[in-house]
Task: structure prediction
Amino acid sequence: MRATLLGVIFLLGRKLLVAVVQLYVVATLIFSIMYIMPGDPVLLLLGADSNPTPEAIAAMRHQLGLDQPVLAQYFDWLWNALHLDFGSSLTNGYPVAGYVAENLPRTLELALTAIVIAILVGVPLGIAAALKRGSARDTILTSLATVGISVPVYIAGTLMVLFFSIKLGWLPASGYTDVSRSLSLHLSKLVLPAATLGIGLAASIARMTRSSMLEILGRDFVRALRAKGMPEGQIIWQHVLRNAAIPIITIIGLQLGNLIGGTVLVEAVFNWPGLSTLLVTAVSARNYPLVQGAMLAIAAAFILINLVVELLYNILDPRIRRKRS
Amino acid sequence: MTSASIPRAMRGQPAFAFSVALIAMVASIGVFGGLLAPQDPFLIQSQLVNQGSSASHWLGTDEFGRDLLSRLLIGVQPTLIVAIGATAIAAVFGTMFGIAGAHGRPVTQFIIMRCVDIMLSFPPILLALLAVGFWQSGVLSLIVVIGVVYIPQFARVAHSATLQVSRMEFMEAERAMGASTARVIFNAILPNILAPLVVQATLTVAAAILLESGLSFLGLGIVPPQPSWGQMIGTARGYLAQNPMYVIWPSLLLGVTILAINVAGDRLRDILDPRLRQE
Amino acid sequence: MSLALASSVFSQKAFADGGTLYYGLSSEPPSLETMVNSGTSERTVNLSIHRGLLNYGIDGKLTPELAESYDVKPGALEYTFKLRDAKFHDGSAVTSADVKATLERIIAKGAKAANNSELKVIKEIDTPDPKTVILRLSHPFIPLLDYLALPEQVVLPAAWIKEHGSDPKAAPTVGAGPYKFVKWDRGREIEVTKFQGYFAKERPYLDEIHYVFYPNAETRVNALKSGDVDIIEYVPWKDEKAIQADPNLKLDCTAGPFMALQFNTQSGPFSKPEVRQAVAYAIDRQAVINTAFNGVGTPIYGPPIPHGYMGYSEANARYFTHDPAKAKKMLADAGYPDGFEVRLLSTAQYDFHQNTAVVVQSDLAKIGIKVKLDLPDWAGRMGKASKGDYDFMVAGTGGDIIDADWMSSFYYGGENLVRLNSSPYFNDLSMNEMLDKGRITLDPALRSEIYQAFGKRANELSPIVAMMFRDQCYATRKNVDGFRNLPGFLSFLSGISIEYTKLQ
Result:
């Protein structure tokens, strides 16, 4: 194995190239889908209750460049995107990059906090259940996890708001405050949405941890280690957990990736101004450049997370590393 | 798995037996729900909106004054069709992609796994919004959307499981014997990756029911007046203060059903896993 | 940890009570462009930043704002406005040149302005001195002042118009209103701050307003209950009772907009007036109110003219009844004894639109009409609506102005037969004529007669079947004072009362 600097750079370069191609495919897919989708941004722009004249509609379409042939619009967009210009919102001209720059960090903050909560709760519970398989503890923990999975996140979130915000008045019910304005308010508004998301995720992490642990515990090498007289604690911590970690990390990676564009329900319940709300609003308004920009950001974040997960695989499972190099 | 193994597996496993019974019951409600409904589930009674339990409406009424029990009963069918249909799509395509991505030629592996990544990077909500934009919401678009959402997850699970299986000794043996690809896949890989796939399938059925409810919450679910559990929960969230039982009934049924599916799934996994069976 | 956080939350709130108000909007405005009506949220924000020559005041009457007074020459062909000493936020004075530039931008050919077609009646804008504006019309147009009072016609600095007026994506954020635009945090809120140079010296009262976007209705209500925001718009009907009962909250409702059915009259059963009338007889208004609006609302059995508005008449208002048997007979007489199948366009995005459609579906099933629901998102629904791609459609809206000419946009046929608010392909010459005559008739008594006759004709032809006036509610915390829900159709313009709003 020659892990030279050059090799690492080559590997990263290849991965980045793949990522760019992936992003290109995503962008093209979204572009084509949005343009054949029914609904017209111009009508929405011209007003909620007014009856726009055909001339006004045509003029607006021309001003926005929507009267160009689709292919021309596509190559235009692509050319600009290559220059890192992702256009601006059809409705108000604010740059798409600015939208993403404001919304992505908020989503990341919420998702990462939720994942940390989920790992801190889910992994220990899963291990605890697996180690006493079939016991009352296992049954209770497994059932709890199942209940956790089966409560819709917007119900859980609403109950949290009703209890912690409205009844007890401990925490704000909704919204987002900039750190620059007030750190304590910022954090207090993060608690409920992150906990709501985190608890749901913890349940599935706990389940995956349990089943993956059980799988490894049933392997021959564990029996061999036991036969050799290795202490049970050492077997668990050094061998079983390490091997069980791969599917656990897979599911955490998957969840984190899903969260980047998938926190829409929690964002709705807590009015958290994140990326998926932006995406929903943009699709609703047929704000094409914004949909593309938001989707590219989501895909890019997703691909990045995948890269990290893959790196973790390599560290955790020497066999994969050997096979690939 | 032979047909005899399930009854055998139930012995000494009351939770499993109970779960299977419950699933069977829910499934039969799914088939016969319309016949069991004590009242017309679509009958709007504008004088009786959001009522609690009463002799005429055992579980009360919804915001249209429709009988909740009847709606819960007929709501099972679309819920199950969506969940099972979506899981089937996800399982078939996901497993195919996953095995091909781990076992195919390097180029195939590469392309397939990158496609899976691309699919995975589309948030479910976007897929749903797009689907509804094109076809209307409804059972079919829900099945497709939710199915597509979970394909990559299946693919990932199948992929990593296949990678693990590929490293085992018996695979070397199969390969050494010059077995055909189909043989390797059906005789060596599939049986050995079935356990995580079954777990994934149970998770997916449960998740599909939840996702459907989430989409309903966002107005992208089953077309009214047809109910589904998810749609009922989504609507009921708005009436938490007025009619708390409205949200509790479908949530309870949903939770218990998912619990049963998961318990059954866990046990099935043990039965199916050849290594665990040896113990 | 949560306890520690909670105390800091409270101290923060107590500190902020000096004059920062949090206002929960029902959506993020697509843009702050003034001359386009992009919904209540946009209008609410713009009514804090801008003022027109005149506006609908908090009592619902036309109130001079940047104009100190106005004078209408006999014959109603010449309007003279005297401007008061007002300043824009950048310190420059509001002059007749600004008014001229503003109006010219609106009436330019093909302009995207919401009231472009109505205001084209302005033939000439004369500015004899910086404080005087004279508008000359090509023909008398009674609703002129009403249209000028809408937030779409607020006065913008001529300098801004010169520089950005034709840029489709630019929006004017410098105005002459009580609050100055500070910043728009995308996806979250718009912040405005007190304008010290506002022409009404004693107002406004608040230091700062944060217009926070709360698209989800339940979340918005919870934010009000927990004190995250002080005012919310679009209170969901199902929450009215709970808010009324809450000692910390106040509810302010008006029966404003109406729910109605619009018909595609091009072909098929709905091209026949008798069939549309049959639908009017078949709908159980009270059921719509009880289910989709939680029991709150006023049923309509005639044209959707509110009580007290010009054109209202008891006879017209009681034209229809809920009579399924009669409806069924009318259908049979029209040649549909076994009913027919149609597609009803509504939207899944708003509960009340969808629930109204569900009730209509159930009521029409009783007279043999099979209704298939088409429930795309709002954008899809708008797209289909403007193309006339439906058999009939649930509409939920109100007149834009309180002058009787509001009916034009709902009933006028003419050259453009497929529009958002009118029934596609409906074009009744006698109704067009009455609307034309109404616009130019100076004598109010005569005018009133015209619109009453119009209402009768509207019942007979029923191009639009109105079902109910819905409540439009605002809710505030107890410590908010001076915020007012404007009456009737004007409810959507209530944002203007932020000028009078105080925090106790």
Chain A has two domains: 2-78, 96-324. Residues 2-78 of chain A form one domain. Chain A is about 80% helix and 0% strand.
